[in-house]
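ok here's Homoserine dehydrogenase:
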Amino acid sequence: MPTPVKSVLPVVLLGCGGVGRYLLRHIVSCRPLHANQGVSIRVVGVADSSSLLVAEDVHSSGLDDALLTNLCAAKSAGSPLSSLLGQGQYQLFQNPEARSKVIDAATTLGRTTGLVLVDCSATYDTVSLMKDAVDHGCCIVLANKKPLTGAYEDFQKLVSNFRRIRFESTVGAGLPVIASVTRIIASGDPVSHIVGSLSGTLGYVMSELEDGKRFSEVVKTAKSLGYTEPDPRDDLGGMDVARKALILARLLGQQISMDNINVESLYPSELGPEKVSTKDFLESGLGQLDKSIEERVKAASSRGNVLRYVCEIESTGCQVGLKELPKDSALGRLRGSDNVVEIYSRCYESSPLVIQGAGAGNDTTAAGVLADIIDLQDLFQKTA
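and the structure:
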């Protein structure tokens, strides 16, 4: 006998990049699992940077699975959403009208059946949409870090109703970092200190240097493996780690901004993108960094330590950069592209709570987003 549907979660997805496409694939492939749990995810709209595809009647229907599958294939091939015209019962809107249609859906569903607005984009431009969705009683799920790392007032607004927001995938992809921190805080156990290696790219680079390899060689290998951004300086500059650190610091109650975080870049400003092309950086710039990095690796090794690129969050502030750590510590033993986070509190003072695992990748991040969506099911109206 089929399990009765207990919760229907209408979803509008912002962002059809790697994470967004994997999320749609996960939603489709997990239909049998969710049906057995009495849960139905109804994708009523999907938006990219220029347009919105939305179901004709967001109250009663969503975009069908065949259309979602074709949408993923089209976006993977670089085609616009308009290439799907004629493949189903939906409406297509271009910007700026698309934004108003998202607000219409939030207004219509936010105060009736409910709506989950999911941000898998990589832009600050979704902040106002997210704030409007909160005002209309919608739930929001974020893989995009930027709405939470802009103005502190925006962060406050988005988390004002903590029951209706999930953002686990902004820090450590699918790892339960946010959930662990919030559970510890909720128990009345004050978190005093967090140390984390939150970049799979930099975790891989730093662990490979222990084998005596040159920094330039390791970065180029990481790029060939797909671990880095097209321009590796986007990783080596440390700003992505800083955004994750800022989210954690704000979660602990620190009213700070990116300007308050001391971020150590692994390349000097004279080798920055505004002065040196990506091609020249890879061919000649990287090699200029080998000697200084090698000296730091050897100095750490002489003291029985290793170098790791970490964020460190304390009550006195937040730091992001290279740090010497004991070889036998959780962070010191880190190899490959895993993330590791150590959380210290009264209960975890001498032996921290350690969370380790895959902390990057579109598949892993999308799985974390899907888990966040499912975690909201109890807030939605039950259906017969």
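+1. Residues 103 and 132 are 7 Å apart (CA to CA).
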